[in-house]
Amino acid sequence: MSQDSFKKYLLTEFNIQFNDDSLLQEALTQRNYLNEHQDESGRDYQRLEFLGDSVMQVSVAEYLFKRYPNWHEGQLTEMRIAMVQTRSFAHFSRVVHLNEGIRLGKGEEMSGARDRDSLLEDIWEAFIGALYLDQGLEAVSVFLDQTLFAAIDTDFFDRFIDFKSRLQEKLQKNGAVDIYYRTESEQPLAGNTQLFEASISVDDHELARGTGKSIKDAEKAAARTALKLLEDK
Amino acid sequence: MSQDSFKKYLLTEFNIQFNDDSLLQEALTQRNYLNEHQDESGRDYQRLEFLGDSVMQVSVAEYLFKRYPNWHEGQLTEMRIAMVQTRSFAHFSRVVHLNEGIRLGKGEEMSGARDRDSLLEDIWEAFIGALYLDQGLEAVSVFLDQTLFAAIDTDFFDRFIDFKSRLQEKLQKNGAVDIYYRTESEQPLAGNTQLFEASISVDDHELARGTGKSIKDAEKAAARTALKLLEDK
């Protein structure tokens, strides 16, 4: 996608139009591209990445702080770490087609950098840094509401959360209890895979069940269900 | 200092008046204080600390980004790390008398927590988190302009910066050069201490000198002076 197409896409999809186009350009420019185009006077994305990194931290922290008024700081921190990380940012860079807009050096292009998570994380942060400078924190929040924050409701970040530890912490808050995971069944699926069902019991009382393609995943699903049951009480 | 006196101090000294006093109260309340005062329904400072941590990150990042338009992201990061850390926050907690306003549990009071750097760092972050929620990022910047940011001009953070590595990086940017530190003199000072003078030479050409109470400090001062000379060119 050319930078012009990308600008149109941002406007159509997210109602974002940069006041200062050079900020968007800087966020999407990799160092070796500039080495190969000595006539260009701009910068690469790295200073904007520095800024965008902390803009992401504060945006996510404020969002979680307000959305989960009853979470303690340990839960907030765990969720923030799950959201603010390479794999997550790389995913959303692809979702909003940032990867297609990057101006890469030829060597990086040849070696497949355009699809490399570490570059896509950097570009995500640089884009957020540029949007922040151009339009402020509120505009960043509106953009994240449509991307990263929306993904909370689809359980996107659950893969990064240690539900078993969290459940254990919750159950043992008022003293030791006996927590027991048991594999209840396994059944063959297509493609040489299996589906496991695990149960979790506390002091011999079954609390919840979960399924997954490994015993670990099934136990995690059971812990997640148990946590939801406990939080709804 | 009572919380009322502290509120007056904030108003007189920094022109800060909270719209929601309970936020300030929460920022200054330690968990065991609440355990000992079961009639109080408020929270302790830990959630605000979670938020304030990232507010500090973004405030400092934006300040450095704008103040040093020619620094690359490595220099920006190094300075941010120097500014956003326990010893620095504890220092400024004392400067603005936050330590005097904390509501501590009795055990913590007895054990001297009121003057403990780790607690004072937490309280600084919690206060910043409260100020951010109450009045926004701009108000935080104005407050930091009078405290943390002002300290840049007094070289307060220099103690945390590795000037020798930074100079070496700068000098060897375009290839290896021979960097040589030499102790030029030492003279006795009062109280069994000494003052050292060190010089730094590059390819046998003396670049700068510095003094300090140890050879290490003298070399650091020389590297700092050399860096300033190079940046002014």
UniProtKB/TrEMBL annotation, chains A, B:
<dbReference type="InterPro" id="IPR014720">
    <property type="entry name" value="dsRBD_dom"/>
</dbReference>
<keyword id="KW-0255">Endonuclease</keyword>
<feature type="active site">
    <location>
        <position position="53"/>
    </location>
</feature>
<dbReference type="GO" id="GO:0006397">
    <property type="term" value="P:mRNA processing"/>
</dbReference>
<feature type="binding site">
    <location>
        <position position="125"/>
    </location>
    <ligand>
        <name>Mg(2+)</name>
    </ligand>
</feature>
<keyword id="KW-0460">Magnesium</keyword>
<dbReference type="GO" id="GO:0019843">
    <property type="term" value="F:rRNA binding"/>
</dbReference>
<dbReference type="InterPro" id="IPR011907">
    <property type="entry name" value="RNase_III"/>
</dbReference>
<feature type="binding site">
    <location>
        <position position="49"/>
    </location>
    <ligand>
        <name>Mg(2+)</name>
    </ligand>
</feature>
<keyword id="KW-0507">mRNA processing</keyword>
<dbReference type="GO" id="GO:0005737">
    <property type="term" value="C:cytoplasm"/>
</dbReference>
<keyword id="KW-0963">Cytoplasm</keyword>
<comment type="function">
    <text>Digests double-stranded RNA. Involved in the processing of primary rRNA transcript to yield the immediate precursors to the large and small rRNAs (23S and 16S). Processes some mRNAs, and tRNAs when they are encoded in the rRNA operon. Processes pre-crRNA and tracrRNA of type II CRISPR loci if present in the organism.</text>
</comment>
<dbReference type="InterPro" id="IPR036389">
    <property type="entry name" value="RNase_III_sf"/>
</dbReference>
<dbReference type="InterPro" id="IPR000999">
    <property type="entry name" value="RNase_III_dom"/>
</dbReference>
<feature type="domain" description="DRBM">
    <location>
        <begin position="162"/>
        <end position="232"/>
    </location>
</feature>
<keyword id="KW-0699">rRNA-binding</keyword>
<dbReference type="Pfam" id="PF00035">
    <property type="entry name" value="dsrm"/>
</dbReference>
<dbReference type="GO" id="GO:0003725">
    <property type="term" value="F:double-stranded RNA binding"/>
</dbReference>
<keyword id="KW-0694">RNA-binding</keyword>
<comment type="subunit">
    <text>Homodimer.</text>
</comment>
<protein>
    <recommendedName>
        <fullName>Ribonuclease 3</fullName>
        <ecNumber>3.1.26.3</ecNumber>
    </recommendedName>
</protein>
<dbReference type="GO" id="GO:0004525">
    <property type="term" value="F:ribonuclease III activity"/>
</dbReference>
<keyword id="KW-0540">Nuclease</keyword>
<comment type="similarity">
    <text>Belongs to the ribonuclease III family.</text>
</comment>
<feature type="active site">
    <location>
        <position position="125"/>
    </location>
</feature>
<feature type="domain" description="RNase III">
    <location>
        <begin position="7"/>
        <end position="136"/>
    </location>
</feature>
<keyword id="KW-0479">Metal-binding</keyword>
<keyword id="KW-0819">tRNA processing</keyword>
<keyword id="KW-0378">Hydrolase</keyword>
<dbReference type="GO" id="GO:0008033">
    <property type="term" value="P:tRNA processing"/>
</dbReference>
<keyword id="KW-0698">rRNA processing</keyword>
<feature type="binding site">
    <location>
        <position position="122"/>
    </location>
    <ligand>
        <name>Mg(2+)</name>
    </ligand>
</feature>
<dbReference type="GO" id="GO:0046872">
    <property type="term" value="F:metal ion binding"/>
</dbReference>
<dbReference type="GO" id="GO:0010468">
    <property type="term" value="P:regulation of gene expression"/>
</dbReference>
<dbReference type="GO" id="GO:0006364">
    <property type="term" value="P:rRNA processing"/>
</dbReference>
<dbReference type="Pfam" id="PF14622">
    <property type="entry name" value="Ribonucleas_3_3"/>
</dbReference>
